[in-house]
Write a structure and sequence with these properties.
By secondary structure, the protein is of the alpha/beta class. The protein is 46% helix and 11% strand. Strands 1, 2, 3, 4, 5, 6, 7 and 8 form an 8-stranded mixed sheet that branches. 36% of the residues are buried.
Length: 342
């Protein structure tokens, strides 16, 4: 499974390509010629000037003008902002993500890349692969989560199998080739380093990103022992920036807001340290600092008030309430979101 381990601030392997320049079509040129002819006919001076020239000269001039305008239009389209969507971790509180996606869909907000951690990687990965919002809504409302987690203890791959059943056939291994380029975050428990998946088995990558230590077994691959990405990066806005996002919409499910008294550089455990990586992590709690940086780096922060709900609030009435809270919170940002419409 391909990863971009610990590549912060770098491009990273296999990152998304920039928007390609749009070439003017025959329809574009015809439309521009008609508009140009209309303006010429309205001007007595231009009409007189054109009447004194041969027909070939007039047509040539019109085509030259049309191509020039078409090129300018193409350059304008290529400069449209690339919009990234970041879905944070939070267990059952991820139901709020579905409400937010409903708003983005209703407002016709274009999303060019998606990044997720933990439950955000599940919703984000399925959404990026082209799974409809209605299906995601049904997943939360109808899935027997308690039974699924119990089955995972016995069967060990029940959750991953569920993801595979929801994903379309022939999902590409290169996550840039999904309908929406995608990344998800996990952490290597051996080194406490962040691992960013950009390719490989999508279902397995999603499963690794949500492997909450002490709750769900870790995912072992390429000598790594992978656990929930929220251990280090629960709101990976920085990864969306690495993917080229000009504007980032971040959905933050975290309810306990930590102090902002210090913001350190990117955390890396030093192998020469006398402290074990887990002890070093507990003493420094780098996830708090990373979270604060990312929260402030988002352009549009959607932060549902989910007080009273927890990571295990999978009861149907709680799921329905959180979906609605997510929807209503996103609608409060309607004015900003509408400016991003196609």
């Amino acid at each position: 499974m391909g990863t971009d381990e610990g590549k912060k601030g770098e491009g990273g392997q296999g990152l998304s390509k920039q928007t390609k320049t749009h070439k003017p079509t025959h329809t574009d040129i015809t439309s521009i010629i008609k508009q140009t002819t209309h303006h010429i006919n309205k001007s007595p001076y231009l009409s007189h000037l054109m009447s004194q020239r041969p027909l070939k000269y007039v047509v040539g001039l019109l085509l030259l003008f049309a191509l020039s305008v078409g090129t300018i239009t193409a350059q304008h389209h290529s400069k449209r902002p690339r919009i990234g969507l970041v879905l944070g971790g939070g267990g059952a509180k991820g139901a709020a993500h579905v409400g937010v996606l409903r708003v983005l869909q209703n407002l016709n907000v274009p999303i060019h890349c998606v990044v997720g951690t933990s439950i955000g990687s599940i919703i984000g990965g399925l959404y990026a692969a082209g799974v409809p919002v209605n299906t995601l809504d049904s997943l939360f409302r109808e899935q027997d989560w308690a039974r699924l987690f119990a089955l995972e203890v016995v069967k060990r791959d029940a959750i991953e199998e569920l993801f595979r059943s929801l994903l379309p056939d022939n999902v590409p291994e290169d996550f840039d080739k999904l309908p929406k380029p995608f990344r998800c975050v996990a952490v290597d428990l051996h080194t406490m380093h962040e691992v960013v998946f950009s390719e490989g088995d999508l279902a397995q990558a999603m499963r690794a990103s949500m492997a909450i230590p002490g709750v769900l077994r870790s995912v072992k691959t390429d000598s790594m022992k992978l656990v929930d990405g929220g251990v280090l990066n629960n709101l990976p806005v920085d990864i969306a920036r690495q993917m080229g996002a000009d504007i980032v919409i971040a959905v933050d499910l975290q309810q306990n807001q930590h102090k902002e008294d210090k913001v350190q550089e990117d955390y890396k455990w030093n192998p020469k340290s006398t402290k074990a990586p887990h002890i070093d992590w507990l003493l420094k709690r780098p996830d708090w600092d990373i979270y604060q940086r990312n929260k402030h780096n988002a352009d549009i922060l959607i932060h549902p008030n989910l007080k009273g709900y927890g990571v295990a609030s999978f009861a149907k009435k709680h799921i329905e309430a959180m979906i609605e809270i997510g929807y209503n919170t996103a609608m409060k940002q309607k004015r900003k979101l509408k400016k991003l419409r196609r």
